[in-house]
Design brief:
The complex is a heterotrimer.
Chain A (H helix, E strand, L loop, with lengths): L4 H29 L10 E6 L8 H9 L25 E5 L8 E5 L8 H5 L5 E3 L6 E3 L9 H5 L6 E2 L8 E2 L5 H5 L5 H5 L5 E5 H14 L20 E4 L17 H5 L1 H7 L3 H32 L6
Parallel strand pairs in A: 1-9
Antiparallel strand pairs in A: 1-8, 2-3, 4-5, 6-7
Helix pairs in contact in A: 1-9, 1-10
Chain B lengths: L18 H23 L1 H4 L10 H7 L2 H4 L2 H11 L9 H22 L20 H14 L1 H5 L1 H11 L4 H38 L14 H28 L5 H28 L11 H26 L2 H20 L18 H24 L7 H13 L8 H10 L1
Helix pairs in contact in B: 1-15, 3-6, 3-15, 5-6, 5-10, 5-11, 6-11, 6-15, 7-10, 9-10, 10-11, 11-12, 11-14, 12-13, 12-14, 13-14
Chain C lengths: L14 H7 L4 H14 L12 H10 L4 E6 L5 H7 L6 H8 L1 E5 L7 H14 L5 E5 L2 E2 L8 E2 L2 E2 H10 L3 E5 L1 H5 L12 E2 L10 E4 L6 H14 L12 H4 L10 H6 L9 H4 L31 H4 L44 H22 L20
Parallel strand pairs in C: 1-2, 1-3, 3-7, 7-9
Antiparallel strand pairs in C: 4-8, 5-6
Classes of the chains: A alpha+beta, B mainly alpha, C alpha/beta.
């Protein structure tokens, strides 16, 4: 009995219905669990205010010291001259200098320690993890395979890879988690002479930022603090007197990258329901085809006496 | 386990060692040397990858693009086994072999590309997996597919060779065949499920890059478009390979099968184009295609190539014109590869001032690994029964056998093979 | 004390003649001119000339200007700074380059002789002398907190200034009040330019300022009868036109984030930036960072390892605590700062060539190969007629 096209389509149709039904269930399940937009209870972070920063780069020097980083000597072998975050620099001060001579601004760049980080969502073996208690995004070398997916996903271009050497690492600010563990502050906020970057719990920092905005209406861009909701929220917050895009903080909307872009993936793969149903359907159809064909093969063998080509 | 409609015959009349094979082997050895250098010196000195474009052609081309081409086993298989296009069974072995080689070369190069490969053993430990990550899905599913269902599907020609030329192992082969026969539907089912999952996950990889992929390409349906593109790319790769083998080894072609392949490819491309445009239309992104920048130009190049491909496929199928078919499948492959490659590199904008172009060494390594796959294909096609012969040959042979005495010890092709190899 | 009318010599030869008569060597004179050029490389017409000899010849032709120097609420530090010059030394300066007709600290006369010499100087050089004021003038309670020869300081100032050609306030006290004007300013100490409004007043703040600032202004006036370009606080731009921070020898340490945290720490011993010790360099206009004192290199506060206190600035000196951090606004960020978007990645020639080669080879092979295929197949049977296999 040959499998007719009608029969095949019928089984596939049944399968498709099954898949659709399972998807609906999964969508429901995922919808209920997507209250992931909240920062951990004791989330800590940094508040950086461009109006206070004098560009002294003490924070860069301190970060290098505390993290045992050599400093980027590649340009002339004399001066530390990291031009960007890279494998020698976990923290950097950059300059926004508009060509028309109007208001320049310094900007400190380091890991934003997002509330729902894209890098953590993408990391296959959980080398990048978000501490459930204080929310610091840390990296573990024993779990990293150096695939650099984190560099592709981070909307702020933070994780950097060591492109030279036998044992390359991913280099990024980890909020001095060893210092936090013994009750100290991160190195950058400790040395800042102008209190441009300060450390505290996310709640405290948000309150302080809002206080500054209220006390100085019109001083800060859009009268808001970047990172409160941007990209789902970050734990490194920014107050700026120039537009955020000019200092490298992109416009991300209020949804985090994983939330916005992995919705359908989560739904389709939830409990592996959809793949399992699809598999079952396909096997059913194939088996029917296969058995028919085996049967046919048998007949042919009897008819011609020839071994079918193996 | 493959029925009478499979009529594959080795390329037994052309010596295995040829100039082309030497060139390919040379390229591969060069690549091997460069890989050793990469392992010792790190990725920076060998490649043009940088912190803005952290993925270079090894990942974005050899893995993300060429495994799309290597989806022949998946695409043609679904047409043959799920939709019952029995005629296509004849080309299944070619499709499976190209898939297998594309995957093996891609996976190996992936192992070269990752910075800390000694931690790849974590792929075997499900409790260490991050289930939300599309990359995990790819990292688990692709090797699993290549080493299990795809590998098993490629065993029959080898078993057949053993059966013909190593008579001592015949009972073993027959036992193995029987066992495999029983589980074949399950294996084949996996061989369609797993590629569907990971080819779409390859698309999902670029989802997490968010706004850094240009909106003309970035869409929640990126995974669907990727696996769909894999489908038509797989077809074009198989058809193109068959035509290329016909050219290289002066084999007769089965234009009926090629016609069917071309037709199916055409329909798949058209449906894909319709979906892609609808997606852009519904999300109001069409105006972006008319901005005057390199992304709009790239987009239109892609679209035009695929439209031309679809039209050429249709015409060539109608006319049964082999040369036109070859051109058509080549254009399809190029269009498909462009689509899969663009969101990773050309339509990927990490930040202004960032640029990437592979270094010469990087290109040579990529080329070397592709050469490896091609070289193995050539050797396998000459030693094993992979490439199909026209159906009339089989009918002639059947007629001949039925006319003569029954039960020859060796099949005709086997005899010829034995004669050639002695 | 009867008033003796004392007559003083009134000859007024040129500076050149005078120096020659005094036995001043040409070499010493040239050295002086070089020092002037260093003090005021720009902004002074006198030194805008290309060569030392040109400056020298100009000065040589000038008649010695008459200078009257009054002290008010001062510490005499500004006079002391003048004394710390060796080229010329003070004697040459006051006798041969300028005619210092009245200076309470330096002149031999005292008492009624001194007063007589003041009146004579005023009479003989009426409208032509330069009045240099040192020290602030108290205004409270009618100005009774300073009396000179029985007269209130403010009255003396007005009288002498009325006949002067130009008034120079030497030092921060004369410029804007200085130390005596520090909170709560019990005497109402004020700068000269708040009292003399009808004449050009040039401020040379500093505690003390560099003596070559004064010399430059005086000689410029004497030679060209013109005052140098001034800023909005009447300070000559050639000396006060830039911030210490922008010309500080320790600026590289500031830019690299190397700061002294405590006196005598390792950073201090290595000469690191004193910003965190409260250095007011970023807010202070002065030339001290390039023009050091006592003609000894590095003889200035930051060079000696102590933070600048902003002694020239009215808003800073004696008002803002020494160890309070300076505000940095308007300082030019260094050119070498990394910009927000940096360039990364490039294309190699070999790579581009190779890519082209590969693409070409594949394309070419495909094209050639395609032509080996039959173009149209109009036979019903798809196989037999094709180029046969063996």
């Amino acid at each position: 009995m040959e499998l007719t096209r009608r029969a095949a389509l019928k089984s596939l149709g049944a399968g498709a219905v099954g898949v659709a039904a399972t998807s609906l269930v999964s969508i429901q399940a995922v919808a209920e669990e997507s209250s992931e937009g909240k920062a951990p209870k004791h989330a800590v972070g940094l508040l950086y205010d461009t109006t206070r920063c004098v560009g002294c780069q003490s924070c860069v020097a301190a970060c290098n010291e505390v993290n045992n980083l050599e400093g980027d000597l590649r340009a002339d072998r004399i001066h530390h001259s990291a031009q960007d975050l890279n494998s020698f620099a976990k923290n950097i001060i950059k300059l926004y200098r508009p060509t028309d001579g109007s208001g320049y601004s310094f900007v400190k760049q380091q890991c934003m320690h997002c509330v729902d980080p894209a890098c953590v969502a993408g990391c296959s073996f959980k080398a990048l993890t978000k501490n459930p208690d204080n929310g610091v995004v840390g990296w573990t070398s024993s779990k990293c395979m150096g695939c650099r997916y984190c560099e592709i996903t981070c909307p702020y271009h933070i994780p950097k890879f060591q492109w030279e050497g036998l044992n390359p690492k991913i280099v990024k600010c980890e909020l001095c988690k060893e210092r936090l563990a013994v009750g100290k502050e991160p190195a950058c906020s400790t040395v800042c002479p102008a209190k441009a970057v300060v450390y505290g719990t996310r709640e405290q920092l948000l309150a302080e930022a809002k206080r500054r905005i209220e006390a100085n209406p019109g001083k800060y861009y859009e009268n808001r603090v970047f990172g409160e909701n941007d990209g789902g929220g970050t734990q490194a917050l920014y107050l700026s007197h120039v537009p955020f895009e000019k200092i490298g903080l992109p416009d991300l909307g209020n949804e985090s990258v994983p939330e916005k872009y992995l919705k359908w993936q989560k739904r389709l793969y939830s409990y592996l329901a959809v793949p399992v149903v699809a598999y079952a359907t396909m096997v059913a159809v194939i088996r029917k085809n296969w058995n028919d064909h085996q049967h046919h093969m048998q007949e042919e063998q009897e008819r011609t006496g020839l071994r079918p080509q193996l | 386990m493959i029925g009478f409609w499979e009529r594959n015959v080795p390329v037994f009349d052309i010596p295995v060692r040829s100039r082309a094979l030497y060139v390919l082997t040379g390229l591969f050895l060069l690549a091997f040397g460069l890989v050793t250098y990469r392992e010792l010196a790190g990725l920076g000195p060998v490649s043009g990858m940088n912190d803005a474009y952290a993925w270079g052609i090894w990942k974005t081309f050899n893995v993300m693009t060429l495994t799309g081409l290597g989806s022949g086993g998946f695409a043609v298989g679904i047409a043959a086994y799920l939709f019952g296009r029995k005629r296509l069974h004849a080309v299944m072995r070619t499709a499976l072999l190209t898939s297998f080689l594309a995957y093996i070369s891609g996976m190996t190069l992936l192992g070269v590309d990752v910075g800390r490969p000694w931690n790849m053993y974590l792929v075997l430990m499900p409790w260490r997996w991050n289930y939300h990550s599309p990359l995990l899905e790819v990292a688990v599913c692709m090797p699993l597919y290549a080493m299990f269902p795809l590998f098993l599907e490629n065993i029959p020609p080898v078993l057949e060779w053993v059966h013909e030329f190593r008579p001592n192992f015949r009972p073993l082969v027959e036992k193995a065949t029987a066992v495999m026969s029983k589980f074949y539907p399950l294996v084949v089912g996996l061989a369609y499920l797993l590629p569907a999952m990971h080819q779409s996950s390859l698309g999902a990889l670029m989802l997490l890059a968010g706004d850094r992929v240009h909106p003309l390409w970035q869409t929640p349906f990126l995974p669907l478009l990727y696996v769909w593109a894999a489908a038509f790319m797989g077809f074009s790769c198989v058809a193109g390979t068959l035509l290329f083998c016909a050219i290289m080894w002066k084999r007769p072609m089965d234009l009926d099968i090629l016609q069917e392949l071309s037709r199916i490819t055409c329909y798949v491309i058209v449906a894909w184009l319709v979906f892609r445009f609808s997606d852009l239309l519904v999300n109001g992104k069409i105006p972006l295609a008319f901005q005057f920048n390199q992304f709009a130009v790239l987009f239109w190049i892609e679209m035009v190539i695929l439209v031309v491909a679809a039209v050429t496929l249709f015409d060539s199928a109608k006319l049964k014109n082999a040369r036109m078919m070859f051109h058509a499948h080549l254009i399809t492959a190029i269009g498909g590869m462009m689509y899969r490659f663009d969101p990773t590199t050309l339509a990927f904008k990490p930040k202004s001032g960032a640029f990437y172009f592979p270094t010469a060494m990087e290109i040579l390594v990529a080329l070397g690994f592709v050469s490896f796959a091609v070289a193995v294909f050539i050797v396998a096609a000459k030693k094993l029964a992979i490439i199909p012969a026209p159906i009339s040959y089989w009918h002639d042979y059947e007629r001949e056998v039925l006319a003569n005495a029954p039960e020859p010890q060796l099949s005709t092709s086997g005899q010829a093979l034995a004669a050639a190899q002695d | 004390m009867s008033k003796n009318d004392v007559k003083l010599p009134t000859e007024k030869p040129t500076i050149g003649e005078h120096l020659k008569r005094a036995g001043y060597s040409r070499r010493d004179f040239m050295t002086l001119c070089s020092m002037l050029m260093v003090t005021a490389p720009v902004g002074l017409a006198l030194t805008d000339n290309a060569s030392v000899s040109k400056v020298a010849s100009q000065i040589a032709k000038t008649k010695r200007p008459s200078v009257i120097w009054l002290h008010f609420q001062d510490c005499t530090g500004c006079t002391e700074t003048l004394l710390r010059t060796s080229k010329p030394d003070v004697a040459d300066l006051i006798l041969n380059m300028i005619s210092l007709d009245y200076h309470e600290t330096l002149m031999a006369a005292c008492g009624s002789q001194a007063e007589a010499s003041l009146r004579q100087a005023m009479r003989e050089n009426e409208g032509k002398y330069i009045l240099v004021c040192e020290g602030s003038i108290p205004l409270k309670d009618g100005g009774q907190y300073l009396k000179l020869g029985g007269k209130n300081g403010v009255d003396l100032l007005k009288e002498v200034a009325s006949k002067a050609a130009a008034v120079i306030s030497m030092g921060s006290c004369a410029s804007w009040g200085g130390v005596p004007s520090a909170d709560p300013n019990p005497t109402g100490a004020t700068g000269v330019d708040q009292i003399i409004k009808d004449k050009a007043v040039i401020n040379l703040p500093g505690c003390p300022p560099n003596p070559y600032n004064l010399l430059g202004v005086v000689l410029e006036y004497a030679t060209f009868k013109k005052l140098p370009a001034l800023d909005d606080q009447h300070r000559p731009l050639f000396a006060y036109g830039r911030l210490i921070h922008d010309h500080c020898p320790r600026r590289a340490h500031f830019d690299a984030g190397r700061f002294v945290k405590e006196f005598s720490d390792d950073g201090h011993r290595q000469g690191w930036c004193l910003y965190k010790m409260g250095c007011k360099g970023p807010q202070t206009h002065a030339a001290c960072s390039t023009n050091h004192f006592n003609e000894v290199p590095d003889c200035w506060p930051i060079g000696a390892g102590t933070p600048c206190v902003g002694c020239t600035e009215k808003a800073i000196a004696f008002r803002v605590p020494i160890f309070q951090l300076a505000e940095i606004h308007g300082a030019t960020p260094p050119e070498a700062f990394p910009l927000v978007n940096t360039k990364i990645g490039s294309i190699g020639t070999a790579a581009a060539g190779l890519a082209g080669l590969v693409a070409g080879a594949i394309g070419g092979a495909a094209w050639v190969g395609a032509h080996k295929l039959p173009s149209t197949d109009d036979k019903p049977k798809s196989d037999a007629a094709s180029s046969g296999g063996k």
